[in-house]
Amino acid sequence: MKITDIKVTHVNVPFDAPFWWTAGLYPGASKSIIEVETDAGIVGLGEAPWWHFGEVVEKEIKPALIGQDPLDLANAESLCVPAYQITANTGENASTVAFGAVELALWDIRGKAMDLPLYKLLGGAVRKAIPFTEYFSFRPAWRGQDGTATGGEMTPEAIVDYCLKMREQHGSTFFEGKLIQGDPELEIRTVRLLREALGPEAMIRLDSNMQWSLTTARWVLREIEAYNIRNYEDPVASFEEMAELRQHSRIPFSTHIPDLRRAVALGAPDSFVCNFAALGGIARTLKFVAACEAMGKGFWCYSNDLGIMTSAYLHVVAATHWITEPSQSLFRWQVGDVIKDGPFRQTNNVVHLPKGPGLGVDLDPAAMERWHRHFAENGPMSHFHDPAAPGRFRRLPLN
Asked: What positions does the domain Mandelate racemase/muconate lactonizing enzyme C-terminal occupy (predicted)?
C-alpha cells in the first residue's frame, strides 16, 4: 500500500457563544482536516490543532510522503521531522506538530487496513467509558446565526446556574472552567458559590491561563483551598513560579507545556494536558505518557478539538491505564463538527468509544463544505480579540 495524496481542508467551527480567556474572547476553532489517500482505497483522517499547521502539511509533509508506505510510521517520521533535540533548540517545531496531525491519519489507515479499532492496535481497552469535564466560563450574551440566544454567564450566580443546568440535563458532576476577568475576589466568590451549590462530591477544576501574578495567586489559592479544588491549570506564568506557589498551596497544578524534565526537576506542575498532534502524534504521546507514569506526573487530554482528534483521545485513554483523570471538553458549546453524528457530547460525565475500525469516525461531506466555507469567507477565528482594546494584545498577568 502506498500514499497517493494528502488533502488539507481548513475549517472554522464556532461556539454558540465566545468565552473569556486571558487573551480576550475565544470564539471557536480553526482547524485543518487531513485526508491521507492510498492506492488501496483506504483514506485516513487527521486533524491539526490550528489551521496554519495544515499549511506545513501541504507544503512540506505531503511532498515527502507521496509514494510511501502508510504503515511504516518510523520511515514516515524520519522523512518529515528532524531530531527533537534540534527542533527544541531552534524553535522549529512546526514540522513536529504538522506530522503529528498526519500521523493520526496513518494510525486510522492501519486500523482500517486490519479491520480493528485503534484501541485494539494499542493493546486493548482498560475502560470503554471515557470521562470528560463539563466546561464553564464567563460568556457574554450572544445570538447565533439562527437568532438563538446563548451565553450570558457573566456573574458568579449565572455560572452556578449553568453548572446546575448541566447536572440536571446531562448528569454532569465533573466541572472545569475559567473565571478570567482579572478580579481575584470574583474568582474566590464564584468558587465558593459553586462548591456550595454543587455539593462536596462534585469535581471542580480551574484554569486561569496564567492570568495571576505570583503574589495574587498566593492569595487566591489560599482562599479557595478550602473548597476542594481538584486541579488548577497554569495559575501563574512559569514552572518556576508554580514551584514557588507549591510552597503555599496543596492544590495540584497542570499545564499545556510538555516539559517533563523541568517539571520533575522543579517539583511542579503535577500534570500535563496535551493535544496529541502537538506532541508529535499518537506514538510520541504514548512515550510521553509512559515517561509521565515513571516520573509520577499525571496526564489528560486537551479541549477545543473536533471529532477526529477527540476520537483519538477516546481510543488512547481507553487503552492507557495511567490516564485516569477526566479530560477537558468544550463539546457542549460547539455548534457543529466535521464528522458524522458529531460533535461528541458526554452523558453522566462520559463519552463511549466509537465503533468501527481505525478512529471509528467518518467525515460528513455537507458539514465539511459548510465549515470550510465559513473559513474561506471569514478567515481563521481570532482568540485574541479584546472589545475594550481592539487590535491590541493583552499583556500578562491581568492581576
From this structure: 156-252
Q: What range does the domain containing 9 cover? A: 3-115
Residues 83 and 226 in one domain: no
Whether the Cβ atoms of residue 62 and residue 76 lie closer than 8 Å to each other: no
Residue 254: pLDDT above 90? yes
pTM of structure: 0.96
The string of pLDDT tens digits covering residues 59-103 is 999 999 999 999 999 999 999 999 888 877 787 789 999 999 999
Q: What is the CATH number of the domain that holds 317?
A: 3.20.20.120
CATH number, domain containing residue 71: 3.30.390.10
Integer Cα distance of 237 and 396 in angstroms: 8
Residues in the chain: 399
Q: What is the DSSP string of 263-315?
A: HHHH----EEEE-TGGGTSHHHHHHHHHHHHHHT-EEEE-SS--HHHHHHHHH
The beta strand positions in 144-266, using DSSP E, are 149-150, 174-178, 203-207, 231-233, 253-255
* The three grid cell numbers given for residue 174, joined into one nine-digit string: 465533573
Are 322 and 196 in the same domain? Answer: yes
Identify the sign of the CA torsion 290, 308, 71, 102.
negative
* Residue 175 region by backbone torsions, left for phi larger than 0, else alpha for psi between -120 and 50, else beta: beta
Residue 230: CB atoms within 10 A of its CB come to 18
The domain tally of the chain equals: 2
How many angstroms separate the CA atoms of 191 and 108, rounded?
41
pLDDT tens, residue by residue, 297-351: 999 999 999 999 999 999 999 999 999 999 999 999 999 999 999 999 999 999 9
Residues 124, 268 within the same domain: yes
Task: Name the β-bridge partners of 259.
Answer: none
Closest CA to 175 of 257, 231, 127, 236: 231
Please tell me the distance from the alpha carbon of residue 103 to that of residue 97, in angstroms, as a whole number: 10
The residue behind cell 464556532 is 14
Q: What's the whole-number mean pLDDT along residues 246-253?
A: 96
Residues 294 and 209 grouped into a single domain: yes
Grid cell in block for residue 74? 518510523
- Residues 6 or more apart whose Cβ sits within 8 Å of residue 269: 239, 242, 252, 253, 254, 255, 263, 297
* 122 close to 286: Cβ distance less than 8 angstroms: yes
